[in-house]
């Protein structure tokens, strides 16, 4: 392989893994891509585009967490373009995280503590101090 290997949104992580492993398992294993795909498959079937989610679905969320500033900007820009009639208050949180196994574990632990506090809070009032 000589460059990025793009896949369409909605392509199952397992299919991406099988495809890349068949192309060059040693290469994609060495650079960590196969491990990232395994991690992704453990949480959901396929990558999703926020903008493709129906407004009725998005309007029912209390909290959205983004792990990159670029994604945070995408989500907030998308929210500003939607009709707000079906929305409840939505808190969008950005936690910049490098896409590595170690950072995923560290941030996963931190995020779990945060969402447990958020779940116990009345988000229609104010966010809890998580410091």
From TrEMBL:
Keywords assigned: Hydrolase, mRNA processing, Nucleus, Protein phosphatase
Any Gene Ontology CC annotation: nucleus
Catalytic reaction list: O-phospho-L-seryl-[protein] + H2O = L-seryl-[protein] + phosphate; O-phospho-L-threonyl-[protein] + H2O = L-threonyl-[protein] + phosphate
EC id: 3.1.3.16
Any GO BP annotation: mRNA processing
Coiled-coil residues: none
Protein name, as recorded: RNA polymerase II subunit A C-terminal domain phosphatase SSU72
Taxonomic source organism: Florenciella parvula
């Amino acid at each position: 392989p000589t460059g990025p290997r793009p896949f369409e949104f909605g392509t199952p992580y397992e299919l991406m893994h099988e495809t890349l492993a068949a192309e060059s398992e040693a290469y994609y294993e060495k650079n960590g891509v196969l491990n990232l795909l395994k991690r992704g498959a453990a949480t959901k079937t396929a990558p999703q585009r926020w903008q493709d989610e129906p407004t009725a679905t998005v309007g029912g969320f209390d909290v959205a967490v983004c792990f990159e500033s670029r994604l945070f900007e995408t989500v907030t820009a998308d929210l500003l373009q939607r009709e707000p009639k079906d929305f409840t208050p939505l808190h969008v949180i950005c936690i910049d995280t490098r896409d590595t196994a170690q950072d995923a574990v560290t941030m996963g632990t931190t995020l779990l503590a945060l969402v447990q506090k958020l779940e116990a809070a009345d988000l229609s009032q104010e966010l809890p101090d998580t410091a």
